[in-house]
Design brief:
Elements: H1 3-22, E1 26-32, E2 36-38, E3 41-43, E4 46-52, E5 56-65, E6 68-80, E7 89-94, E8 100-107, E9 110-113
Antiparallel strand pairs: 1-4, 2-3, 4-5, 5-6, 6-9, 7-8, 8-9
């Protein structure tokens, strides 16, 4: 078999593997016990799921309820933490309107930090 055929076959196998590894979706569940605002959306009490595809800053994060998108945050930060937290612990803060605003979701060794609404 010619060398270029072997090389082409090898590249054809490697590229999809590298693409699938970079697009892994991370999912975590959390619970909200009181109305909480994310961006301009108020999340009602209940169970939610947050997803992201990579660690770092300017990470697109999506929050789902009942498998439907509730809010998408294009510029969140997802960081590894050395200290494990309670899974799904929420960090909130009252905003200028007096509403509870979600700032951070802490999971075991991962924190999803949401920037304030512009």
């Amino acid at each position: 078999m010619p060398k270029w055929v072997c090389l082409s076959a090898l590249l054809a196998l490697c590229i999809p593997v590298s693409l699938s590894a970079s697009s892994k979706v991370h999912k975590k569940q959390f619970k909200i016990t009181e109305p909480t605002q994310v961006r301009n959306v108020v999340l009602a009490p209940g169970h939610y799921e947050v997803t992201w595809t990579r660690m770092g800053t300017n990470v697109p994060v999506t929050i789902y309820r009942h498998k439907k998108i509730v809010v998408a945050v294009p510029d969140a930060s997802v960081v590894e933490e050395e200290t494990p937290y309670n899974t799904g612990a929420l960090v909130t803060e009252k905003n200028l309107n007096g509403a509870q605003e979600l700032k951070e979701i802490e999971f075991s060794k991962v924190a999803v930090m949401l920037p304030p609404h512009p």
